[in-house]
Design goal:
Length: about 180
């Protein structure tokens, strides 16, 4: 695979993801799992477009209810198996069990989380899902009437955005890092 076609990737940051989840939970109290993963998607997408990296990261997939970081979803689904988890999942509702630690989040992370929360925080989970279904990235990769997940490359997060200039910078940065390995 040459430099131009190698997909961009971002490692999933579990400790940061936990703090992002707690950040939303402390803003809203109990939160629906679907709503939370949509809010994180919007935050990752906006942070990537503005600052060249997502907040949480991981491998994104197009699933029946929209894009989601696979690792984030697995993290949430397995949280009740942990001893003293920072949050718990009861049915489809997330409940905080500890305070969030702002030291894990950068100023730009909090800036974007606040913007996303202000824009989408009052929406119900299925409205957020419907919004993601209108995105070109989702339409390009979704499989109609199936319950499968399809990889959703970060490059496609930019399909609905007017300014894609940062995408070239991300590609160059990741190619440079690959050359160092």
């Amino acid at each position: 695979m040459n430099r131009q076609t190698k997909p961009i990737r971002f490692k999933y940051e579990e400790a940061k993801a936990t703090q992002v989840i707690l950040w939303f939970l402390h803003r809203h109290g109990i939160t629906d799992k679907l709503k939370l993963v949509k809010m994180v998607f919007f935050a990752d997408r906006e942070h990537l477009a503005r600052y060249g990296r997502p907040i949480v990261g991981g491998a994104y997939c197009a699933m029946p209810y929209g894009p989601v970081s696979s690792e984030l979803l697995n993290h949430i689904d397995k949280i009740n198996d942990e001893k003293n988890p920072p949050f718990v999942l009861r049915g489809y509702q997330l409940h905080p069990q500890s305070q969030f630690n702002e030291d894990y989040l950068s100023e730009s992370d909090v800036e974007i989380l606040e913007e996303v929360d202000n824009k989408y925080g009052k929406c119900d989970p299925f409205t957020l899902s419907n919004i993601t279904h209108q995105l070109k990235a989702y339409k390009k990769h979704c499989q109609k009437n199936t319950h499968t997940s399809v990889p959703l490359p970060y490059e496609d997060f930019f399909l609905d955005l007017d300014d894609r200039s940062i995408l070239d910078i991300i590609r160059e940065d990741q190619a440079s890092l690959a050359d160092l390995e």
